[in-house]
Amino acid sequence: MCQNNCNIVEAENKENRKINSRLTYEERVIIEARLRSKRKVKLVEIASELNRNKSVISREINRNSYIKWDEKTAKYKKIYSAAVAQGSYECKRKKAGRKSAIEEDLSLKQFIEDKILIEKWSPEEVSGYIKKHNIQFKIQPSFQEIYYWIEKKQLRVHSEDLTHKYKLKKKKKKEEKNLKGPRHKERSIHNRPNQINKNNEFGHWELDCVEGSKDTKKTYMTLLERLTKKYIVVEMTEHTNNCIREAINRLEEQYGTLFKIVFKTMTTDNGHEFLNYDNIERSKYDRRKKRTKVYYTDPYSAWQKGMNENCNGILRRFIPKGTDLNKVTTYQLELILDKINGKPRKSLGFVSANEMFKLELNKIKI
């Protein structure tokens, strides 16, 4: 007896679900056929045939009918089309549900896309900049949300557009390489004052070179100030020690009497272009006087000047490896440096390197 009652209840529930569920395309075709038949069919009959409530059929017809001029009767009449009704239903279903937060604020969407695609910022820098400067959008996105929108393809940004798109596997260091030390042991990074490692004193730089295509000799000398993260690029005709000396001479001309204060030390690798440290240290105006002091990292230890290496990587996003540097104008290079030094840095509390460098220069008293 109990089993029979359960079956009856289950059958009634299925019938109710059928009555209250959404109409199918096949049912819409039946409605259209009955409405267009020569015999006038009542809504009650259609509802009974489809096992639907009369009000469901009535709403369906009113919602999805369009007005058409009937030449025979010279009157406007309502026409119901199953195809039109199904298309309207599917379109509304796609738009149904809660919209993504980013779709509700198109100005924020445009801001994020511009900063990542044009300015080459990271999602964390975008989020930090918005909060730091209290830019008013409908929502204040976290960098996790921005990554989520990218993953769900709700932005025109792809993983390839991000600063760090892959995690590089650490290469195994060869023991024989670890045994080697810098050629100038007295100038080893291990003899550098600990004050420099703390990054709380202005004027200590990391020095490196960025080369162009193999067919050309033009090279960039790059410098990064450890405290402010200011990034400087100087163009060189060749990848030689003499060109390094000339490039630093140009910086000495630019900064004048401030050079010795702004460029207290320079830490570089053991590349052949840097090995003659006298050319770097001695002043252009008086070879007897020193304008800076040079330190060398351990061989195969790029991480010991990792800040400069990181900015070189950002530069490569604008000027890919293998580019003929002769085709990059000085004006284009300046625009790129403005973007790199103008981006908010997490390590600086989402303030730009340009702002921090200017503050430090203003503190110098001559």
Main attributes?
rod-shaped, 3 domains, 16 helices, two-stranded antiparallel ribbon, five-stranded mixed β-sheet, Nucleotidyltransferase, domain 5, alpha/beta, 366 residues, single chain
Based on CA atoms alone, the radius of gyration comes out at 35 Å
In total, how many beta strands?
9
Which strand order do you get reading across the main beta sheet? 5-4-3-6-7
Number of domains: 3
- The fraction of residues assigned to DSSP E strands is 5-15%
Oligomer: single chain
Low-confidence stretches: 8-17
How far apart are the termini?
A: 104 Å
Helix fraction bin: 40-55%
The mean pLDDT is 87
CATH architecture of the largest domain: 2-Layer Sandwich
Class of the largest domain in CATH?
Answer: Alpha Beta
Overview of the molecule:
With 366 residues, the protein is of the alpha/beta class. The chain has three domains: 2-95, no CATH class; 101-161, no CATH class; 182-363, 2-Layer Sandwich (Nucleotidyltransferase, domain 5). Helix content is 45%, strand content 12%. It has 16 helices and nine strands. Helix 3 packs across helix 4. The longest helix is centred in the N-terminal third of the chain and has 19 residues, at 2-20. The N and C termini lie far apart (104 Å). 23% of the residues are buried.
